[in-house]
Amino acid sequence: MTAEASADELRAANREVVEAFFASNLAKPEERLALWHPDGVKELPFAPAGLPKTRWEGRDEIVANTLANTGMFADCVHRDLVIHAAEDPELFFVTSRMVPEATFLGEPYPQSFIHVIRVRDGKVILQQEYFNSEILAEAERTARAKGRSPQQ
What we know:
Blueprint: H1 3-23, H2 29-33, E1 36-43, E2 55-57, H3 58-70, E3 73-74, E4 78-85, E5 91-98, E6 103-104, E7 107-108, E8 112-120, E9 123-131, H4 133-145
Parallel strand pairs: 1-9
Antiparallel strand pairs: 1-2, 3-6, 4-5, 5-8, 6-7, 8-9
Protein name: SnoaL-like domain-containing protein
């Protein structure tokens, strides 16, 4: 087997992990949590100011963040998924949008994303999530005006 064939096989296997990661729904966090590497890192580089945390390191922190998000986000399913493989067989760039029913704290959440995903040993070891922070901030402001706020 050539190095090129080996890299192509690894890229294909890692792509399946990425597809499963985005097919999961926050309403069923166990689906996504099973795909995280024990040393995984989740980052929100362009998150709105004021968030208590924008980087989670290790599976325990990611599990805690995912479970907390379950109560704040509803019907957050990615659609219009486009997966771009990089030359590095572990690295993928993914674009997606939320389904129209998606909400944050009960408010509409019409968000689009760019994700940087790295897969190692069949698990996601890095997720960098880029999104329009103003959409999230506006949904939170509207929810707070109605007496709803995050429990984080």
